[in-house]
Amino acid sequence: MTELLTAAQMRAIEQAAIESGEVTGLELMERAGQGVVDAIFAEWPELAMPKHSAPAAGGAGGSTPSPLRGSPPEYLERDDNEMRRAVVLCGPGNNGGDGFVVARLLRDAGWQVEVFLYGDAEKLPPDAKVNHERWVKIAPVTALTEQAFRKVAFADMYVDALFGTGLTRPVAGDLAGLLRHLGGYGGDDYRPRMVAVDVPSGLCADSGRVVTPNPRARVPTATLARLTVTFDSPKCGHFVGDGPHHCGRIVVKDIGVRQFREHKPNPHTGRGHVVRFPRTSLIGKRRMVPDERPFFSVDIRYFTKNQGHKYAHGHAFILSGGVGKGGAARLAARGALRVGAGAVTLGSPPAALIENAAQLNAIMLQSLKDPDALRVLLQDTRINALCIGPGLGLNDRGAALVAGVLGGEEPRPTVLDADALTLLAQDRALFDELHANCVLTPHAGEFARLFPEIAEKLNAPATTGPAYSKVDATREAAKRAGCVVLFKGPDTVIADPSGRCSINASVYERSAPWLATAGSGDVLAGFITGLLARGFGAMQAAETGAWLHTECALSFGPGLIAEDLPEELPKLFRELGI
Ligand SMILES: NC(=O)C1=CN([C@@H]2O[C@H](COP(=O)(O)OP(=O)(O)OC[C@H]3O[C@@H](n4cnc5c(N)ncnc54)[C@H](O)[C@@H]3O)[C@@H](O)[C@H]2O)[C@@H](O)CC1
Ligand SMILES: [K+]
User: Fold this and answer.
1) Are 480 and 452 in contact (CB under 8 A)?
2) What is the tens place of the pLDDT at every residue in 411-420?
3) Distance 68 CA to ligand 1 centre (A)
4) Which of 266, 343, 351, 526 shows its CA 20 to 30 Å from the CA of 33?
5) pTM for this prediction
């Protein structure tokens, strides 16, 4: 899994690298700028070629020409119209410093580059100042205003180096107008040729939220990029909130500070130590960082270690609701069975038995009238995972069953979803019964009912950076509930009470909007229950279930309905070598 960093973590790593004496801030800035230029040429190979010999944008032809570094390009001698044009917008901090490096390197590659600076050059931080001075020896810098920017001629590339991880407050005044303009407000579309350095300006790198002074602002003050080039590791804000919408695509460039993540203090100086922070991992498919595992791997030991009979593979028990309401629980049961539970039983109210029996074959059926019946059933110690909530009903029977599931002498690993979450929100005594082997799977509405104060913080406008994020909210919720919380969405965040946190982001190349279909959440609850039955720990079951859920959707493609998700698992398992 790829580790995601916050702005503070990245700063601490950079600090440790510089304090170690192995690298200077200026060198890091040069590597960052070089990384951006390399990423531009990799994303738009035609831009690495002379204007009139390049294939049309979009890269027909396939072969990637080498970036124009090293020997001077022959068309440097040509007329200005033959040259590629870039507009580089630099801000008042080190993000702006990266911008000056990009400008210089593009110029070295034969481009015509126009540079704007927002702020006072005298007040730039030292490394940015050095790069500013290097640039002004080459060409002038124009003070950045919306009006000045609107006067520039069309460019092949726009580089947004206004703000990176240092955005602390809303962008105001004329610059806010410019960011709205760059975000597409008013109809001009810069996105196809906009590259953001580290993070699109205006967006908080931690929360993926646009920092705004106005709670009612409808037009975001942040750029929209086609490509965002970040350094060392992706940041949380690239994957949650509005981050994916603004970033376009994420490319991570190594700047040689990875060893300082777990850096031990220099024994002689005691310096260079990175304090460990709570980890946030990205459960992803694509390789993002050179030497990390490309896949989130399902731990196949759990699937291969037991060669015994079906109960050796776990027995999941899914509680269902009343007549005509059994579909959700049946979907969960199917998910639990397909993901690998050796046996799955559906507990149905007596009146709904016939209806359920008509729909089930491999899934066993058991009459479950009330909590007394549940108590008797749970004497069967082979039942090692429970799922309650899908289609349960917001009534006394439902509440009594939630209490029955959570109470008892030996509470089992349990997934609480849908109606069970609403019942928990209505009865704090029930909420207090949650234990470490529970997994709560709320969507945003259920989350707000369960954790109203946390949701209020999350939904309040982001008026400062770093802003409170979905990652913060899920961590806080898990701590409060004392169990694993899986906060659903395209940016599903999963946390346990210790602070361990993962994001299963169905965005970028894992985007699967067709996953938002009726019953999809019930199948997810079933996947997690089946994995619990199979022996996975609560956090691992939630992470693996969420990952498989997205992968099934991607594998099936558009047109998916909830019933298709479990049926896609065998194909996926084959591909994973299980
Ligand atoms: N951390 C690292 O390891 C590296 C960081 N680098 C770059 O440095 C960046 C971080 O630099 P900084 O910490 O200087 O932060 P930024 O360059 O993101 O911005 C900080 C500056 O912007 C001002 N500012 C913040 N919010 C503002 C607002 N709303 N309106 C007007 N001014 C505002 C601050 O007062 C400060 O002057 C990264 O995003 C990255 O691009 C790279 O040079 C390479 C290495
Ligand atoms: K930026």
Assistant:
1) no
2) 899 999 999 9
3) 28
4) 266
5) 0.91
Q: What is the mean pLDDT of the chain?
A: 89
**Ligand 1 test: best mutation among 95, 162, 179, 260, most atoms within 8 Å of CB?**
95
**ipTM passes above 0.95:** yes
Residue with CA at minimum distance from ligand 1 atom 5: 94
Whether residue 466 has a cis bond before it, omega within 30° of 0: yes
Q: What is the pLDDT of residues 279-325, one digit of tens each?
A: 788 887 544 444 444 456 667 666 765 667 777 789 999 999 999 99
CB-based contacts of 126: which residues, under 8 Å, 6+ apart?
Answer: 25
- The structural domains of the chain, ordered by start, are 24-72+83-255 (3.40.50.10260), 304-576 (3.40.1190.20)
Ligand 2 centroid to residue 36 C-alpha, Å: 11
CA dist 94 and 29 (Å) reads 8
Structure tokens at 29: 């800035």
As a whole number of angstroms, the distance between CA 491 and CA 158 comes to: 28
Nearest Cα to Cα of residue 29 among 18, 42, 40: 18
Phi/psi at 378 (5° precision): -75, -5
Q: Residue 117: beta bridge partners?
A: 90, 143
Q: What is the DSSP track for 322-362? A: STT--HHHHHHHHHHHHHT-SEEEEEE-GGGHHHHHTT-SS
Please tell me the distance from the alpha carbon of residue 260 to that of residue 272, in angstroms, as a whole number: 8
Question: What lines the ligand 1 site, CB under 6 Å?
Answer: 10-11, 14, 28-29, 32, 91-98, 125, 163-171, 197-198, 231, 255
DSSP state of 235: B
Q: How far is CA 502 from CA 41, 170, 339, in A?
A: 32, 28, 21
Smallest CA-to-CA distance from 423 within 390, 375, 376, 470 is with: 390
pLDDT at 13 over 70: yes
